[in-house]
Amino acid sequence: MGKTLFLRWLMPGFVSFFILTSPAKAASLQSWQFESSQNRLSFTTDGGVQPKAQLLSNPARLVIDLPGTSLGGVNRQQLIGGAIREIRVGQVDNQTTRIVVELVDGYTLDPQGVQFRGISPTQWTVQLPSPQAVGTPTPTQVTATTRPALAIPQTPPLRPPAPARLPATLPQQTVNRSISQQPQTTLAQVEVRDNGIVLHTTGKMADIEFKQSQDRSWMTLDILGATLAARSNGTGKQVNRDGVTVSQVTQLSNNPPVVRVTMSTPQRNQNWQARSSAGGVAVWPQGSTPPAVQLSGGFAKIRSVEIRNQQLLIQADQPLNYSSGWDNQTQSYSITFFSAALAEGVALPQRQVGSPIIWTRVRREDPETFTLLIKPATRIEVGQISQGSPQQLALAFVGEGLGTRTSVRPPVATVPTPNPRPFTPRTNPPRTNPNPFPFPPRTVNPPANNPISNGRAVVIIDPGHGGSDAGAVGVGGLQEKDVVFSISQQVAQILQQNGVQAVMTRLDDRTVELEPRVDMANRMNATLFVSIHANAATNAAASGIETYYYSSGDRLAQYIHNSVISSFSQIPNRGIKTARFYVLRNTSMPSILVETGFVTNNYDAYMLGDPSQRGRMAQAIAQGILQYLRDNRY
Fold first, then answer.
1. Which of 277, 480, 466, 313 lies closest to 397 in space, CA to CA?
2. Which of 170-184, 508-522, 524-538 has the lowest mean pLDDT?
3. Which of 230, 181, 179, 221 is nearest to 202 (CA)?
4. Which string of DSSP letters, residue by residue, matches 121-158?
5. Which percentage of the chain shows pLDDT scores above 70?
6. pLDDT tens, 216-247?
7. Which residues pair with 457 in a beta bridge?
8. Sorting pLDDT into bands at 50, 70 and 90, what band is 528?
9. Per-residue pLDDT, 544
10. Alpha-carbon dihedral of residues 151, 171, 381, 372, nearest 10 degrees?
């Protein structure tokens, strides 16, 4: 591009519906956020808006103008890190708000990869492609014709990549998902059935990314943290009625390990969907019955569970199928084994001097499923699970007294940030932030002299989990820690805009124990404590919203729960319940814990994975808090 001004209008046909049917009205920008893990920008206005976007050069930046829109009380700037330097928001004139996504020198975006989605005239998302180094061919330069400048193009049909053109490494967007560097899942077989496709796996329940091309002629399914056991015997076979062909099964990347299955379909009017479950992944036409996934191998007997070399080692007589994450009720790490049981006489390890755990317990889920609960010792973090063989599993621990501390998350490559080109005045120089969240790291506990305005309510917003503690992991690899952080940020922002001092217990993706969260609330003499979580269950049909309190939080629970249920009437109401959660029992102010849905349920996960729906959830929670404060004269 050099120093030539490069301009492309970036309005796909999907967005045109809102452009042609929604008249512009005076509006203000209510909120915006950028999810680095998804490479996705979303924004909400209080009135209909017709975005106009263009890609400019020198420096490379995506400029999104919102005509007829004023700048509300939102954050003006967010430093990102990596190839994206920052996102800025400003008022170009009294009629236009502008959002600028600026890249680091030497990087650019493929304009054909920028996808706008108008969820409604007031809610928009912008999916960005992975930034590319200048001079590197972009995917659309390889597979499609470059579009002319100053045009309003339709997105060209995409074609399945030829085997020789498969990238040697994953794009940045996928790498940022914190894929395990060690294989945890094995793709054993691809089976093509009349009603869909089944990918049989062993090891950890598959963490997947499923994509269908815009013209619906092909689709890809990536299994993250996976290796390929053998060449699929389903390649070349077709689904009888739908004509789907599995055209390629390949080890897309070895570091991190990712397996890709590429499928083509001649029916352009059919949407497909995918779901991961114990033993494999089902892919089927939307609206039809999914093919059943059955566990491969026999019933596994676990012969030993022991602590050795600061690892929890599990040995079985058959390949193990499992899922893992954090258990909200017991605040312990959980490994759920499917089609398995403990052999008679197996002793579970308990706490000893120097042990990384406090206890291990077994919870029976059904006759063929059980969960092993592991409570780590104080200042001990749970690392990654690795499998030396299909019959063996090792869970690592890191922390004080266990030798050199290593990161439990794979490092994210960063690019040195050059001098900024300001959009609005600022005094602080930019810094590279490898975390996928917008706030820079800081200590969890605020300074002792942290000022609190007299007569101003102080609400602690507690995003559950974080760092090495992903919380529940559900459909498509959706992680609880990411969902609740996104919601919590927006709740805090809404409260601040309404004159309430909101303080978050974590401002980035880090591990925070329960005790510091409680200490922060008690030390600040907070007015309220609101902990935000997402639920999980081994039963994929489990769905809905529930709110917990311990003692003084019953009225607060009613306000927040009723507000959320009124906004999400289509989701089951699981009620208000009492619980002895640590953060509820040990805080000295009205405290509640709200479960915003089940990441393991298809519908709930779809809702929680949608930025606009997370914003809607945040609005509902914040509204419940504000109404409680108003009615109780705070």
1. 313
2. 170-184
3. 230
4. TTEEEEEPPPPEETTSPPHHHHHSPPPPTT--PPPPPP
5. 77
6. 788 889 898 888 886 544 455 566 577 888 88
7. none
8. very high
9. 93
10. 100
Residue 389: enclosing H or E segment and its boundaries?
strand 380-389
Two tokens at 490?
């927006």
The span from the CA of 349 to the CA of 355, in Å, is 9
> What angle (nearest 5°) sits at the alpha carbon of residue 634, between those of residues 624 and 622?
20
Secondary structure (3-state) at 527:
coil
pLDDT for the residue 439: 26
Distance CA 348, CA 361 (A): 7
Kindly indicate the confidence band of residue 426, based on its pLDDT and cuts at 50, 70 and 90: very low
Catalytic residue at 381?
A: no
From the list 191, 480, 546, 595, the catalytic residue is 595
Question: DSSP readout, 583-605?
Answer: HHHS-SS-EEEEEEEETTSHHHH
What is the rounded average pLDDT of the residues 569-577?
A: 88
Compute, in degrees rounded to 10, the torsion defined by CA atoms 492, 494, 500, 502.
Answer: 10
Which tokens is 619 given? 């609005």
Angle between helices 480-497 and 611-631 (to 10 degrees): 50
Angstrom distance (rounded) from CA 232 to CA 1: 43
User: What integer pLDDT is reported at residue 400 of this predicted model?
Assistant: 58
